[in-house]
Amino acid sequence: MITVSLIPNALTRWLIAAVCCAVLAGCGTSEKEALKELKWSYSDDGVQIQVQADPALNQAKGQPHMLTLVVVQMEDPNGFTALTSNAAKLKTLLLSDSPPQGVLSIKRIFIAPGETRSLKLERVEKAQYIGLAAGYDHLDPARCTRLYRVGVEVDSSGLIIKSRTATPEPLKIELRLGPDGIQESPGSKPQPVEPTKPKAGLVPAPAPATTPASAPVSAPATGSPTSNVTPSDAK
Fold first, then answer.
1. Of 217, 51, 61, nearest to 140 (Cα)?
2. pTM
3. Exposed, middle or buried by CB within 10 Å (0-12, 13-18, 19+), for 88?
4. Cα–Cα dist 174/153, whole Å
5. Could you tell me the CA-to-CA distances from 155 to 29, 34, 167 in Å, in that order?
6. Residue 223 φ/ψ region, left for φ over 0, alpha for ψ in the -120 to 50 degree band, beta for the rest
7. Of the given ranges (136-145, 157-166, 203-212), which has the lowest mean pLDDT?
8. Could you tell me if residue 115 is inside a domain?
9. Is 208 a domain residue?
10. What is the pLDDT of residues 99-129, one digit of tens each?
């Protein structure tokens, strides 16, 4: 009789515990809810670029030149496409001293032939896309620009009640600058833009524009032919 009476009690307690666990689990935060609450906050090292420049960087008339590299941060990727759709617009962006319309931040950097450098840049608030524009002599947008999307990481905590939080993760770019254009590199392959959980990766550039290239934009190295970017322009 004692054994028989304990079985129903044990089963009852097990059922109650299972129901409680199910109810508590329902009180957690789902991944979709975490993504809805995602805030594109500021990060002091949210953009990390490993630059490797070819010794024959930005070669023109058989001579290498310094290269102007512009890092653009945006909330909407369409802004970068509009600013780099042809050679004239690309040149304007390379010489901009302040963020154009649709751009949250712009930073100009000069890269020397053969240089290897690690750049850690702040990611400004609301920035979801990072565009790179290089001032190669030919100003061909297909060879001078790249667009990247910032990825998102979803963390979970709790054993029974799962609480999830979504935060932007640092964007790491391996940038190889060849003699006449940006070269593809490991870690910088095109990735699809996901509507729910973005993944870090390279957004493919648009088709080359048919507009004829204008005068070259570059910061000349000592002893090199003069280009369109003068010291006053580069400020």
1. 217
2. 0.67
3. middle
4. 20
5. 11, 9, 8
6. left
7. 203-212
8. yes
9. no
10. 999 999 999 999 999 999 999 999 999 999 9
**Within a domain: 9:** no
Residue 75 counted as domain residue:
yes
Amino acid type, 85: S
End-to-end CA distance of the chain: 92
Determine contact, residues 182/143, Cβ cutoff 8 Å.
yes
At residue 147, does pLDDT exceed 90?
yes
Q: Which residues constitute the domain of residue 81?
A: 45-153+171-203
- Here the CATH number for the domain that contains residue 198 is 2.60.40.4150
Q: Are 206 and 90 within 8 A, CB to CB?
A: no
pLDDT tier for residue 181 given thresholds of 50, 70 and 90 = very high
How would you label 96-127 residue by residue, b for 16+ Cβ within 10 Å and e otherwise? beebeeebbbbebbebbbebeeebebebbeeb
Is residue 172 over pLDDT 50? yes
